[in-house]
Amino acid sequence: MAGDKTKNIMHYDTVNLDDEKNALVIIDQTQLPGRVEILHLTELEDIFEAIYLLKVRGAPAIGVAAAIGVYLTAKKIKQENFDAFYAEFKKAKDRLAASRPTAVNLFWALDRMEKVVLDNKDKPVEQIKKLLHDEAVEIREEDIRVCRAIGEYGLTLIKDGDGILTHCNAGQLATVKYGTALAPIHLGVEKGMNFKVFTDETRPLLQGARLSAFELHSNGVDTTVICDNMASQVMKNGWVQAIFVGCDRVAANGDVCNKIGTSAVAILAKHYGIPFYVCAPTSTIDMEIAHGDDIPIEERPPHEVTEMWYKERMAPKGVKVYNPAFDVSENQLVTAIITEFGIVRAPYAEGLKEIFRKKAEAAGK
Ligand code: MRU
What we know:
By secondary structure, the protein is α/β, with parallel strands linked by helices.
């Protein structure tokens, strides 16, 4: 079903659960900005493929989609005996966990769903299914609250009229609502503020040109698309007062892993003395990983570089292609990490631990 193109993209749900149709509902982001196509997915393999092919993408959105996907699959399991049910659940969980390796939100959400199953093994399977439903809905609702909080904290770091540069899409299309890196901009717009946003096109999959530009432009934000290699010039011109990016995984030492090309932006920001802010919900922070070098980096197929956006293949056949989807910016390049529990500055090892202390306190633990 195609959506209404004239509607502001902010009015669409990026990821949702349709209880009547027992479906994961997403906007097919591979079709943007040309077509707003809404997909209703009911089968595990279709949900796996939607994540792998980036129909739904962005760390928080992937986590929510996986939680809904594993619930929908669990709901269909026929076995009423716990062990048999759990074995089937685990198969579905492992399948979805194999869809993409870098964004830790995927594993975080699936582990939360598995914990619901294991914590309730004494209950009838029908009841466990209901609890899985409620957990998936809560993971989704939580994402909205978390992104809003990140947006409010981020907004304290910028002022009306600022020029902001962003890389990839860490906006509403990457979350359930608001986004992370674009949340301060969307919340600022709600309050009547204006910003001039530069979106790196973000080779090779063009999430900046296709998605961030579409989302910001659709929400009435002054938006300029630049090729990735123009960021230095735009910064040199004095047009950028702050850089906001999202991330897929933060290591315990504050190294941040985000879309390929982010580290180049971080290095340029340091050169030009521009603050480089990374927006990260705690679901993106992996305290089990000590150092950015230990974060698994996804490598994607060569055709995304050589063919995908061209009428004809643009590189010689048989040539080698290196297509890493993410890179790591070392913590020394990061001005601050913005979480839903506050803004963290160096030293990050201490600051991130403090954020998790606040999180535990808020949960009454
Ligand atoms: O490959 P993608 O499009 O899933 O990569 C997305 C990013 O790198 C985002 O910046 C990150 O996931 C944060 S989204 C709030």
